[in-house]
């Protein structure tokens, strides 16, 4: 149990009172983050905490001292260090985790499309012994990835067919997906874009391709919303990201920019005061954070999300439903409740896309419906994400709901509530019809 200030802002103090946040049974007092007062304060030398705007959690501190004893906390909190030292080979991983035969085989004979990369920070969250633990299954490959089953496709969402120029997917009328990089700090084994991610060929970070993509957006005045994704846009430098944001913001018909990222969960050190100071120049800017399991909701991730929220950036979450990882109501309830505490609104729960080798991750649709039913009505509506299937073949996101509307009877709509009780609503203005 820890109850202490996580960081002191230098460049951009957070709000005066950001609250007491409970995460993973730890209570973090964010109230004393800034010490801002309305009283004039005497100039004083900056403390080490003010100069160093992060504080590592006990868990990552113990991990760092055990596996990276030569590394200072300053280096540990340098996101470039985390990226440079991402774990990519079996020897390094075996130094940290007791690898199962299955994991070792998969690491040694890995020939699949998606490479392995795990930031040291995220490695600190993995269970060192249990290969079946949630976070470990998300990032350590197993041989099941080689098992290709019916219905799986390299590009299950048919994004390539909706790509008028490289890097742009234009599926819906008023918005585009802009794939700005093919890199992530940590690769999720169930990644929908495993066909293009992690090739290290700079496929998308190419000024000529970016210019063509931006020209496409400029020439399509119906595009009012641009979602930057990849790969993970927040693995790019502040300068590259700002160049893109500035170009997009200068297009008159672009009303909204969104960023899709897993960085706050896998590389929270990236959310620096300098980054948030830059991002907040490009409002309205929204961020969707890919979160999988409550074990990701660490003090470090809390601090990263609160820093983004204090910069005025609305935060939503996106979660992929994964078999044996988060496919039960209690795990999902812990996740969505924890997210609300760090000011992230649960947004989408995705049915796992059928990429090759994903059958060990996929659940029946009934599981997703059961989870929504277990949340809706049982907890605050803000905590309940929309459960969607991204339709294979390019049909887009289709929301699924448990059956709450049973049908009509004598002009009344019959409705089932969260407790299973049936109620009637006098649907007088609708065309009269009965249950068939
Ligand atoms: S962070 Fe997103 S893009 Fe990167 S590997 Fe995970 S799912 Fe794929």
Describe the fold and architecture:
Among the domains are: 160-399, TIM Barrel; 403-436, no CATH class. Helix content is 28%, strand content 16%. The chain has helices at residues 48-51, 58-67, 73-76, 79-84, 90-96, 101-108, 120-123, 134-139, 207-218, 238-249, 263-266, 273-279, 299-310, 329-341, 365-375, and strands at residues 20-23, 26-29, 168-169, 175-179, 225-229, 256-261, 285-290, 315-321, 345-351, 386-391, 396-399, 405-409, 412-416, 422-426. The protein has a nine-stranded mixed beta sheet. A three-stranded antiparallel beta sheet has the order 12-13-14, with no helix packed on it. Strand 1 (20-23) and strand 2 form a beta hairpin. The longest helix is centred in the C-terminal third of the chain and has 13 residues, at 329-341. It starts with 19 loop residues before the first strand and ends in a 10-residue tail after the last strand. The structure holds iron/sulfur cluster.
Q: How are the secondary structure elements laid out?
A:
Layout lengths: L19 E4 L2 E4 L18 H4 L6 H10 L5 H4 L2 H6 L5 H7 L4 H8 L11 H4 L10 H6 L28 E2 L5 E5 L27 H12 L6 E5 L8 H12 L6 E6 L1 H4 L6 H7 L5 E6 L8 H12 L4 E7 L7 H13 L3 E7 L13 H11 L10 E6 L4 E4 L5 E5 L2 E5 L5 E5 L10
Parallel strand pairs: 4-5, 5-6, 6-7, 7-8, 8-9, 9-10
Antiparallel strand pairs: 1-2, 3-4, 10-11, 12-13, 13-14
